[in-house]
Amino acid sequence: QVQLVESGGGLVQAGGSLRLSCAASGRTFSSYAMGWFRQAPGKEREYVAAASRSGNTYYADSVKGRFTISRDNAKNTVYLQMNSLKPEDTAVYYCAAHGSGSYHYVSRGPSDYDYWGQGTQVTVSS
Q1: CA angle 3, 35, 38 (to 5 degrees)
Q2: Rounded-to-integer distance, Cα 68 and Cα 58, Å
């Protein structure tokens, strides 16, 4: 079992920045690829970014160049630095972990993830 707890959400003006954190406990954090997803009201949960076990990072086109995912295996934590925020980034953000696939692999599909945090609200005002 892996327990994931997100923090760092809040209200920010358009153009501002937030840094989300996801602390993991339980089984070995470094054994998992980590992803960030978000879900806005009335919409499907969508992929935002992911970091493989090797540390490779991947992004959705909508956030590329604005968001940065990073992981600190020593602290069992994955981060999402969000810059140049837009009102359309408003959503509940979730971190998730999956243990399948190769060392460099990440999945963009929510159904592939084994563990999820409770989510943290990010609201960007215009």
Answers
A1: 95
A2: 9
pLDDT-derived band at 95 (thresholds 50, 70, 90) equals very high
d(CA 126, CA 121): 16
What's the residue count for the chain?
126
Sign of CA dihedral 102, 1, 74, 20: positive
pLDDT tens digits for range 78-87:
999 999 999 9
**Which H or E run includes 103?**
none
Furthest-apart CA atoms within the chain: distance in Å: 41
Contacts of 30 (CB under 8 A, 6+ apart): 53, 73
Smallest Cα–Cα separation from 59: which of 49, 67, 51, 44? 49
Dihedral through CA 107, CA 111, CA 112, CA 118, nearest 10? 90
Tell me which residue of 10, 60, 16, 11 sits closest to 35, measured CA to CA. Answer: 60
